[in-house]
Every structure is written in C-alpha cells, then in structure tokens.
Design the sequence.
C-alpha cells in the first residue's frame, strides 16, 4: 500500500510541475499493482495519458494533413523528419500502460 501511495504522491507532484511523462511512469507503477484503482488514481492516470498524448496527436494531425495535401511528399528532408516523428510517436504509444488496467 505504501508503494501505491508513494507513486500517487509522485504523480501529483509531477502534475503540478507539468512533468507528464514522469506522471505516466508513476501511474503505470500504481496500475500494475494487484489492487483495483481508486477514483482518484483513475483520474490521475487519465490526466497523465491525456497530457502526454495530446501534443503528439496535434503534431500527428498537422503532419498528416500536410501529407494529404501533397505539399511535402517530394521533399527528402521533410520525409526524413516525418519518418523520425512516426518512429517517436509509435515508441511513445508502446510505452503506455494497457488502457484496460
């Protein structure tokens, strides 16, 4: 129980400092314990995930819309940046805890 409380406390501090990646890590540890999440813990987990994925989704939408408009397809440099971004985005998604937890 103490481990859970410590990680919830870390998540709250991370939220106040707007360090959402650290908040996700703390809540991931809470979610992997063999205890049912409280309402507060579910809310913290939701806030952490929302604030980490939001900027990535916005970037993804911008790049996707530019590609759809065929404005940057032939630019090798931009395609390289796009490929790197896709890799970064997918790696970030892989590290998220299972939403069912």
Sequence:
């Amino acid at each position: 129980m103490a481990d859970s409380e410590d990680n919830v406390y870390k998540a709250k501090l991370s939220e106040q400092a707007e360090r959402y990646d650290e908040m996700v890590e703390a809540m991931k540890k809470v979610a992997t314990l063999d205890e049912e999440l409280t309402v507060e813990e579910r809310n913290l987990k939701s806030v952490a995930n929302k604030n980490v994925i939001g900027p990535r989704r916005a970037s993804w939408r911008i790049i996707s819309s530019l590609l759809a408009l065929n404005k940057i397809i032939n630019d090798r440099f931009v395609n390289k940046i796009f490929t790197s971004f896709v890799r970064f985005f997918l790696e970030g998604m892989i590290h998220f805890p299972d939403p069912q937890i």
Notes: The mean pLDDT is 82.
